[in-house]
Amino acid sequence: MDKVEIFENERAAGYNQFVETWIPNYNYFLDRLPKLLRETNNKDLLVVGCGTGNEIERFIQSPEYWDITGIDPSPEMIKQAHEKLQNRKNVKFIEGVVTDLNVEKKYGAATLLLVLHFLNDDGEKLNLLKSIAERLESGAPFVILDITGDEIQIKHNLKILRLLLPDGLDEEQINNRLNRIEKELYPVSEKRMSELCTEAGFELPLRFFQSAIYMGWITKKK
Ligand SMILES: C[S@@+](CC[C@H](N)C(=O)[O-])C[C@H]1O[C@@H](n2cnc3c(N)ncnc32)[C@H](O)[C@@H]1O
After folding, report:
1. Which amino acid residue places its CA nearest to atom 11 of ligand 1?
2. What DSSP line would sit under 14-47, residue for residue?
3. Which of 59, 87, 109, 182 could covalently link to 37 via disulfide, CB atoms 3.0 to 4.6 Å apart?
Protein backbone atom coordinates (compact mmCIF):
# COMPACT_ATOMS: atom_id res chain seq x y z
CA MET A 1 0.00 0.00 0.00
CA ASP A 2 1.34 3.48 -0.93
CA LYS A 3 2.20 5.84 1.93
CA VAL A 4 -0.43 8.55 2.35
CA GLU A 5 -0.10 12.15 3.59
CA ILE A 6 -3.31 13.05 5.46
CA PHE A 7 -5.25 16.11 4.26
CA GLU A 8 -8.29 16.79 6.47
CA ASN A 9 -10.09 19.49 8.49
CA GLU A 10 -8.62 23.02 8.10
CA ARG A 11 -5.86 21.67 5.92
CA ALA A 12 -8.39 20.42 3.40
CA ALA A 13 -10.82 23.33 3.76
CA GLY A 14 -8.17 26.05 3.31
CA TYR A 15 -6.24 24.21 0.63
CA ASN A 16 -6.93 26.36 -2.44
CA GLN A 17 -6.09 29.61 -0.64
CA PHE A 18 -2.95 27.95 0.69
CA VAL A 19 -1.53 26.90 -2.68
CA GLU A 20 -2.26 30.23 -4.24
CA THR A 21 -0.30 31.97 -1.50
CA TRP A 22 2.60 29.59 -1.26
CA ILE A 23 3.24 28.46 -4.82
CA PRO A 24 4.04 31.42 -7.05
CA ASN A 25 2.86 30.78 -10.63
CA TYR A 26 0.90 27.70 -9.64
CA ASN A 27 -2.14 28.85 -11.58
CA TYR A 28 -0.02 29.56 -14.65
CA PHE A 29 1.33 26.01 -14.41
CA LEU A 30 -2.14 24.52 -14.07
CA ASP A 31 -3.53 26.54 -16.97
CA ARG A 32 -0.83 25.18 -19.30
CA LEU A 33 -1.11 21.52 -18.25
CA PRO A 34 -3.65 20.44 -20.91
CA LYS A 35 -1.47 21.95 -23.64
CA LEU A 36 1.55 20.02 -22.39
CA LEU A 37 -0.25 16.70 -22.57
CA ARG A 38 -2.43 17.20 -25.61
CA GLU A 39 -0.22 15.33 -28.09
CA THR A 40 -1.24 11.97 -26.70
CA ASN A 41 -3.82 10.09 -28.80
CA ASN A 42 -5.22 8.20 -25.83
CA LYS A 43 -7.10 10.87 -23.88
CA ASP A 44 -7.60 8.68 -20.79
CA LEU A 45 -5.96 10.86 -18.15
CA LEU A 46 -4.91 9.79 -14.67
CA VAL A 47 -4.64 12.62 -12.12
CA VAL A 48 -2.79 11.22 -9.11
CA GLY A 49 -3.36 13.07 -5.82
CA CYS A 50 -6.06 15.16 -7.49
CA GLY A 51 -6.92 16.90 -4.19
CA THR A 52 -9.65 19.48 -4.66
CA GLY A 53 -9.72 18.99 -8.44
CA ASN A 54 -7.51 21.90 -9.51
CA GLU A 55 -5.86 20.03 -12.39
CA ILE A 56 -9.10 18.39 -13.48
CA GLU A 57 -10.83 21.75 -13.73
CA ARG A 58 -8.27 22.84 -16.33
CA PHE A 59 -8.66 19.68 -18.42
CA ILE A 60 -12.43 20.12 -18.50
CA GLN A 61 -11.98 23.64 -19.82
CA SER A 62 -9.51 22.63 -22.54
CA PRO A 63 -10.66 22.23 -26.17
CA GLU A 64 -9.77 18.50 -26.25
CA TYR A 65 -12.13 15.96 -24.73
CA TRP A 66 -10.38 14.13 -21.88
CA ASP A 67 -11.67 11.10 -20.02
CA ILE A 68 -10.41 11.89 -16.53
CA THR A 69 -9.81 9.70 -13.49
CA GLY A 70 -8.86 11.61 -10.34
CA ILE A 71 -7.52 9.55 -7.48
CA ASP A 72 -6.79 10.74 -3.94
CA PRO A 73 -6.77 8.98 -0.55
CA SER A 74 -8.28 11.98 1.30
CA PRO A 75 -12.10 11.89 1.55
CA GLU A 76 -12.24 15.61 2.40
CA MET A 77 -10.20 16.66 -0.63
CA ILE A 78 -12.18 14.39 -2.95
CA LYS A 79 -15.43 15.79 -1.51
CA GLN A 80 -14.36 19.33 -2.46
CA ALA A 81 -13.43 18.13 -5.93
CA HIS A 82 -16.85 16.48 -6.30
CA GLU A 83 -18.66 19.63 -5.23
CA LYS A 84 -16.66 21.79 -7.62
CA LEU A 85 -17.01 19.51 -10.63
CA GLN A 86 -20.29 17.72 -10.09
CA ASN A 87 -22.02 15.68 -12.76
CA ARG A 88 -19.34 15.63 -15.41
CA LYS A 89 -19.70 12.42 -17.30
CA ASN A 90 -16.05 12.46 -18.36
CA VAL A 91 -14.73 12.73 -14.77
CA LYS A 92 -14.49 9.89 -12.30
CA PHE A 93 -13.17 10.25 -8.74
CA ILE A 94 -11.66 7.39 -6.79
CA GLU A 95 -10.91 7.63 -3.09
CA GLY A 96 -7.77 5.56 -2.74
CA VAL A 97 -4.22 5.11 -3.96
CA VAL A 98 -2.81 4.18 -7.36
CA THR A 99 -2.30 0.53 -6.45
CA ASP A 100 -6.09 0.26 -6.03
CA LEU A 101 -6.46 0.81 -9.79
CA ASN A 102 -6.71 -2.17 -12.11
CA VAL A 103 -3.29 -2.61 -13.68
CA GLU A 104 -4.84 -3.96 -16.92
CA LYS A 105 -6.29 -0.53 -17.75
CA LYS A 106 -3.69 1.69 -19.44
CA TYR A 107 -3.98 5.49 -19.34
CA GLY A 108 -2.69 7.81 -22.07
CA ALA A 109 -1.28 10.53 -19.77
CA ALA A 110 -0.85 11.28 -16.07
CA THR A 111 -0.07 14.09 -13.65
CA LEU A 112 1.40 14.10 -10.14
CA LEU A 113 1.34 17.59 -8.69
CA LEU A 114 2.59 18.39 -5.20
CA VAL A 115 2.46 14.84 -3.85
CA LEU A 116 5.95 13.36 -4.09
CA HIS A 117 7.57 15.63 -1.48
CA PHE A 118 5.39 14.05 1.23
CA LEU A 119 6.89 10.64 0.58
CA ASN A 120 10.22 9.47 1.90
CA ASP A 121 12.94 8.46 -0.52
CA ASP A 122 13.27 5.07 1.14
CA GLY A 123 11.18 3.29 -1.48
CA GLU A 124 7.94 5.25 -1.02
CA LYS A 125 8.61 7.68 -3.86
CA LEU A 126 9.82 4.94 -6.17
CA ASN A 127 6.81 2.74 -5.40
CA LEU A 128 4.38 5.51 -6.26
CA LEU A 129 6.18 6.34 -9.52
CA LYS A 130 6.34 2.65 -10.46
CA SER A 131 2.65 2.14 -9.76
CA ILE A 132 1.86 5.07 -12.07
CA ALA A 133 4.22 3.84 -14.81
CA GLU A 134 2.60 0.40 -14.70
CA ARG A 135 -0.76 1.97 -15.52
CA LEU A 136 0.39 4.04 -18.49
CA GLU A 137 0.72 2.93 -22.08
CA SER A 138 4.14 3.18 -23.68
CA GLY A 139 4.90 6.77 -24.78
CA ALA A 140 2.29 8.31 -22.45
CA PRO A 141 3.36 11.77 -21.21
CA PHE A 142 3.67 12.33 -17.46
CA VAL A 143 4.02 15.67 -15.66
CA ILE A 144 5.32 16.15 -12.12
CA LEU A 145 5.35 19.36 -10.09
CA ASP A 146 7.31 19.09 -6.90
CA ILE A 147 9.74 20.71 -4.49
CA THR A 148 13.11 19.80 -5.99
CA GLY A 149 16.72 20.61 -5.26
CA ASP A 150 19.70 19.68 -3.16
CA GLU A 151 20.07 21.18 0.31
CA ILE A 152 21.80 24.33 -0.91
CA GLN A 153 19.36 24.96 -3.76
CA ILE A 154 16.40 24.54 -1.39
CA LYS A 155 17.97 26.91 1.14
CA HIS A 156 18.51 29.63 -1.47
CA ASN A 157 15.19 29.11 -3.19
CA LEU A 158 13.34 29.33 0.13
CA LYS A 159 14.78 32.86 0.41
CA ILE A 160 13.43 33.59 -3.06
CA LEU A 161 10.07 32.12 -2.09
CA ARG A 162 9.95 34.43 0.92
CA LEU A 163 10.49 37.42 -1.39
CA LEU A 164 7.72 36.28 -3.72
CA LEU A 165 5.04 35.81 -1.05
CA PRO A 166 2.06 38.17 -1.03
CA ASP A 167 2.40 41.21 1.27
CA GLY A 168 0.74 41.22 4.66
CA LEU A 169 1.26 37.61 5.74
CA ASP A 170 1.99 36.96 9.37
CA GLU A 171 5.76 36.74 9.93
CA GLU A 172 5.48 33.86 12.40
CA GLN A 173 3.32 31.92 9.98
CA ILE A 174 5.87 32.49 7.21
CA ASN A 175 8.74 31.29 9.39
CA ASN A 176 6.83 28.20 10.49
CA ARG A 177 5.92 27.26 6.95
CA LEU A 178 9.43 27.81 5.55
CA ASN A 179 10.85 25.84 8.44
CA ARG A 180 8.43 22.97 7.80
CA ILE A 181 9.39 22.88 4.12
CA GLU A 182 13.07 22.73 5.01
CA LYS A 183 12.87 20.27 7.89
CA GLU A 184 9.78 18.10 7.49
CA LEU A 185 9.26 17.44 3.78
CA TYR A 186 11.26 15.14 1.54
CA PRO A 187 12.45 16.95 -1.59
CA VAL A 188 15.02 15.23 -3.79
CA SER A 189 17.78 16.71 -5.91
CA GLU A 190 17.34 17.11 -9.67
CA LYS A 191 19.72 14.20 -10.18
CA ARG A 192 17.73 11.98 -7.86
CA MET A 193 14.44 12.96 -9.52
CA SER A 194 15.90 11.78 -12.82
CA GLU A 195 17.10 8.52 -11.28
CA LEU A 196 13.72 7.83 -9.65
CA CYS A 197 11.83 8.44 -12.89
CA THR A 198 14.11 6.27 -15.00
CA GLU A 199 14.13 3.48 -12.42
CA ALA A 200 10.34 3.58 -12.25
CA GLY A 201 10.01 3.04 -16.01
CA PHE A 202 10.01 6.56 -17.46
CA GLU A 203 12.36 8.26 -19.90
CA LEU A 204 14.89 10.77 -18.55
CA PRO A 205 12.66 13.63 -17.30
CA LEU A 206 13.06 17.19 -18.54
CA ARG A 207 12.81 20.10 -16.12
CA PHE A 208 10.77 22.69 -18.00
CA PHE A 209 9.47 24.93 -15.20
CA GLN A 210 10.72 26.46 -11.98
CA SER A 211 9.20 28.79 -9.44
CA ALA A 212 11.47 29.12 -6.39
CA ILE A 213 11.59 25.64 -4.80
CA TYR A 214 9.00 24.14 -7.16
CA MET A 215 10.09 22.44 -10.35
CA GLY A 216 7.96 21.09 -13.17
CA TRP A 217 9.11 17.92 -14.93
CA ILE A 218 7.88 16.17 -18.04
CA THR A 219 8.70 12.66 -19.16
CA LYS A 220 7.17 9.71 -21.01
CA LYS A 221 6.49 6.14 -20.09
CA LYS A 222 9.18 3.97 -21.71
C1 LIG B 1 -0.70 19.26 -1.78
S2 LIG B 1 -2.07 18.28 -2.28
C3 LIG B 1 -2.04 18.44 -4.05
C4 LIG B 1 -3.41 18.37 -4.69
C5 LIG B 1 -3.46 18.66 -6.18
N6 LIG B 1 -2.56 17.79 -6.92
C7 LIG B 1 -3.13 20.08 -6.49
O8 LIG B 1 -2.10 20.35 -7.10
O9 LIG B 1 -3.91 20.97 -6.12
C10 LIG B 1 -1.47 16.67 -2.03
C11 LIG B 1 -2.56 15.61 -2.24
O12 LIG B 1 -1.91 14.33 -2.32
C13 LIG B 1 -2.76 13.39 -1.71
N14 LIG B 1 -1.94 12.22 -1.36
C15 LIG B 1 -1.26 11.95 -0.25
N16 LIG B 1 -0.62 10.77 -0.33
C17 LIG B 1 -0.91 10.27 -1.55
C18 LIG B 1 -0.57 9.08 -2.25
N19 LIG B 1 0.21 8.15 -1.72
N20 LIG B 1 -1.06 8.89 -3.50
C21 LIG B 1 -1.85 9.82 -4.07
N22 LIG B 1 -2.21 10.98 -3.47
C23 LIG B 1 -1.74 11.19 -2.22
C24 LIG B 1 -3.36 14.14 -0.52
O25 LIG B 1 -4.55 13.54 -0.05
C26 LIG B 1 -3.59 15.52 -1.12
O27 LIG B 1 -4.88 15.67 -1.64
Report:
1. 49
2. THHHHHHHHSTTHHHHHHHHHHHHTT-S--EEEE
3. 109
CB distance 95 to ligand 1 below 6 Å:
no
pLDDT by 10-residue block (mean), the chain, 222 residues: 73 76 95 97 98 96 96 94 89 97 98 97 98 98 98 97 94 94 96 98 98 98 98
In three-state form (DSSP H/G/I as H, E/B as E, the rest C), the secondary structure along 76-137 is HHHHHHHHHCCCCCCEEEEECCHHHCCCCCCECEEEEECCHHHCCCCCHHHHHHHHHHCCEC
Say if CB 133 and CB 198 are below 8 A apart.
no
d(CA 210, CA 216): 6
Q: Does ligand 1 lie within 6 Å of residue 81's CB atom?
A: no
Measured distance CA(114)–CA(29) in Å, rounded:
12
Q: Are 202 and 133 in contact (CB under 8 A)?
A: yes
Q: Residue 75 C-alpha to ligand 1 middle, in angstroms?
A: 11
- d(C-alpha 144, C-alpha 124), whole Å: 16
**Ligand 1 contact, 43 CB (< 6 A):** no
**Is any ligand 1 atom within 6 A of the Cβ of residue 51?**
yes
Dihedral angle sign, alpha carbons of residues 17, 23, 27, 30 = negative
